[in-house]
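pasting for the record
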Amino acid sequence: MPKKIRVTILDDHQTTVDGYHHRLDGSSRVEIAATIRYGDELEETLKKHPADVLLLDVSVTASAENSNPYPILHLIPALLQEYPDLAILVISMHAERNLIRAIMEAGASGYILKEDQDTLRELENVIASVASGGVHMSRQAKDALLRKGDEDGEAPLAKRQLEVLSLSLSYPDSSTADLARMMSVSNSTVRNLLSKAYIKLGVHNRIAAVTKARQMGLISPEPPTIPVARR
């Protein structure tokens, strides 16, 4: 019997995780190796439970103590450097064109919008495809990526600039030295990346750069506001 494809899931919504179990638990090709709620648990989990495919949500918090989103634009290339055969499939509610592009350029093997039920019904086949080296984007994600908009005139940030802003969002109290250590670069490289990002974004400090990058959908956006029902 062929070896099953091992899948690790990073998602903090239990109903979503239950849905993945419902679609995959009876599969003859796929098995769920681990499920976790926080981004900071991912690297240790992969060491204990090797995986062939990761299912990642964009907006998961970094840890129980840190409610900021985990640094997906740093984590994807870091994981792929350590696990070059790993396939990373992002399943998200966010349809921002810039974010999708940044995640795919970081090395993800696919991007699926959670509202795309047709694709999710074929999740087993999608996992098998990316595990064998394929790339898969749901129709809605592909439409968002190809959609032209006002932001097309904006100068995009480079991958490493997005990475340092993603880390700055996740760990806002980090010093330049902390960021340099996480990125395995020098302090001067981090300062250079940030200063060039400030110029492109038209801001003057790290907090403003992170805020604007989120507003533009370049890094993990703010979660949508849920209207409060009036009585």
